[in-house]
Amino acid sequence: MSSPVVRIIGLTRSFEQGGVRIDVLRGVDLTIRPGEIVALLGPSGSGKSTMLQAIGLLEGGFGGKIEIAGTDAARLGKDQRAAMRRDHLGFVYQFHHLLPDFTAIENVILPQLVADVPREAAEARARELLDALGLGARLDHRPSQLSGGEQQRVAVARALANKPQMVLADEPTGNLDEATANKVFEQFLQLVRGEGSAALVATHNERLAASMDRVVRLHEGVLQ
Ligand SMILES: Nc1ncnc2c1ncn2[C@@H]1O[C@H](COP(=O)(O)OP(=O)(O)OP(=O)(O)O)[C@@H](O)[C@H]1O
């Protein structure tokens, strides 16, 4: 059996708020296999974003163990964590965070150049992903010239540009109207499946969650 893309054991995280300690994550265990698409459900404030930040190696302050692609994150220095994010993980957020002065295709090319992909190959890959998302006629548009759904699709293409083993998505269609959200989400899932990436997708939407391979729920700091 192939090794998991992510394995977390006993993940904990607490915050101080106004002198009061809140234990948000109280011992979360989760294993995600290659290509597995997992929905992360939980009420507002239950710690979904906090969990994605931990797995994305974006912040410290966590207890427990996180392994990404078989490597214990605790052993990685700052630069190695950045390399792990770049080479193995893709990120999609509720808001697109595209670079406003770059076109759609440039936004998808850039992370590849940072990963030392040659320019021509990076451009071909960006074109392929944007085409697959129905944005073939929008390659040279800047984010401000795109609709919300189109911006979010560019963000999806950017997340997949470096062929990540896993995509971490935090309410990736949360700022879109329902019809657009459904369409973009369907395209997102189809592309992630086609690419063979695993994904962990935080959402409030039970219906979208049901279309994924597995659903886990955060409740009172643990997964159910
Ligand atoms: N940097 C921080 N400092 C203090 N408290 C924090 C911090 N980050 C998160 N929290 C608290 O941790 C809890 C979980 O927040 P988190 O954003 O992970 O929840 P969530 O499940 O993603 O919520 P939502 O569905 O509303 O996005 C909340 O009570 C939040 O206020």
TrEMBL record:
The keyword Ion transport does not apply. It comes from the Bacteria. SMART domains: AAA (SM00382). Pfam families: ABC_tran (PF00005). The keyword Ribosomal protein does not apply. Keywords: ATP-binding, Nucleotide-binding, Transport. InterPro entries: AAA+_ATPase, ABC_transporter-like_ATP-bd, ABC_transporter-like_CS, ABC_transpr_LolD-like, MacB-like_ATP-bd, P-loop_NTPase. One of its GO terms (molecular function) is ATP binding. Residues 6-224 form the ABC transporter domain. Belongs to the ABC transporter superfamily. PANTHER family: IMPORT ATP-BINDING PROTEIN, LIPOPROTEIN-RELEASING SYSTEM ATP-BINDING PROTEIN LOLD. This is ABC transporter ATP-binding protein.
